[in-house]
Design a protein that fits this description.
Methylamine Dehydrogenase, Chain H, 2 domains, 5-stranded antiparallel beta sheet, 4-stranded antiparallel beta sheet, Lactonase_7-beta_prop, 6-phosphogluconolactonase, Haem_d1_sf, 6-phosphogluconolactonase activity
Length: 343
């Protein structure tokens, strides 16, 4: 097993790094990071077999997606799709349908791509978010889509930090995006990322600007929404800056995890039978500015990347309690913002 970490390339990073994984339980360790792909600002990427689809910002005028394929032990670039302006902030994937979904925070554009077996990209459709319900915070100066991926029923969902909204779409048979519904969060919430429960009738949206999670019952047939409750990801007495970032839910649907950039922690919540949440733990990331974290297929091991301190931390996860235990810290990896396990 290996761990891939990518991020910004503003300082010493050269792109995407691979870290070997060895040992089990308390003796599990990550080895030295090796640069396997040289690419500019791979702040988010997805993997499908020998293919890696990564954000790329090769110059000041353009940004987009690049595709690398593993051949003879080396990754080679097979395609790149660039557009004027900034690069996307998020890449989603459907490996069965060979679809990619990108959200561009700065340009306000969400896009759907098709890719073939070799990784070559075809743009199917895109939509530009407008500044319709902008929040009151300085960061909400425009529409800012920060996430674009699939719902449990196979529709598409986008979190818009600028508009404080969650937008739902359908990709029709003509491969065109049709807008279906909007959920409006409280002003200044700053919707960033979202996860869904196992039944597919409740979602949990993380607000970057508010450092909160809102639980919402919903129905993908009639698109009715019902807010259940909202929870803080940071302590009540925290007065310094914080931005909630990644949110993940365990496969059994029993636990939710959110990273805090500022409080520099991962908040762990238990999911109750009625879809409400209960705080289990806040654990230090042993570094600064944890934008992303991820787990292996068994969800036994968790790795978080700390962007500002150029390090990662490895945890052991208790599947019964949801709690994390730090088993390795100060793992050197530069400017990390994205974590992906490779089994």
């Amino acid at each position: 097993m290996k761990v891939l970490i990518g991020g910004y390339t503003k300082k010493s990073s050269k792109g995407i790094y691979e870290l070997p994984f060895a040992g089990t339980d308390q003796t599990a360790r990550l080895g030295e990071a090796e640069n396997i792909i040289q690419v500019s600002d791979p702040t988010y990427f997805q993997k499908d077999g020998a293919l890696i689809f990564t954000i790329n910002k090769p110059n000041n005028d353009e940004g987009g997606i690049s595709v690398f394929k593993l051949e003879d032990g080396q990754y080679h670039e097979v395609d790149t799709y660039l557009t004027p302006g900034s690069s996307p902030a998020y890449v989603g994937i459907n490996r069965d349908k060979h679809l990619l979904y990108t959200a561009n925070y700065h340009t306000g554009i969400i896009s759907v791509f098709k890719y073939d077996e070799n990784g070559e990209l075809t743009l199917l459709d895109k939509d530009k978010h407008e500044a319709r319900t902008l929040g009151p915070r300085p960061e909400q100066d425009s529409a800012h889509p920060h996430f674009f991926d699939e719902t449990p029923a196979g529709n598409l969902v986008c979190c818009d930090l600028g508009n404080d909204t969650v937008e739902f779409y359908h990709l029709n048979k003509q491969n065109k995006l049709e807008h279906l519904a909007t959920f409006k969060s409280e002003a200044g919430f700053g919707d960033r990322h979202i996860v869904f429960n196992k039944k597919g009738d409740c979602f949990y949206v993380a607000g970057e600007l508010s450092s909160k999670i809102t639980a919402v019952k919903f129905n993908e047939d009639d698109w009715k929404f019902e807010e259940i409750a909202t929870y803080s990801t940071i302590p009540a007495d925290w007065t310094e800056h914080n931005g909630a970032a990644a949110i993940r839910i365990s496969k059994d649907g029993k636990f939710i995890y959110v990273s805090n950039r500022g409080n520099d922690s991962i908040a762990v919540f238990a999911v109750n039978d009625d879809d409400t949440l209960k705080l289990v733990q806040r654990i230090s990331v042993e570094g600064s500015f944890p934008r992303d974290f991820n787990w292996d297929e068994s969800e036994k091991y968790v790795v978080v990347a700390n962007q500002n301190t150029d390090n990662a931390t490895l945890y052991l996860r208790n599947a019964e309690t949801g709690a994390l235990t730090t088993i390795q810290k100060d793992i050197k990896v530069p400017e990390g913002t994205r974590v992906e396990f490779e089994e």
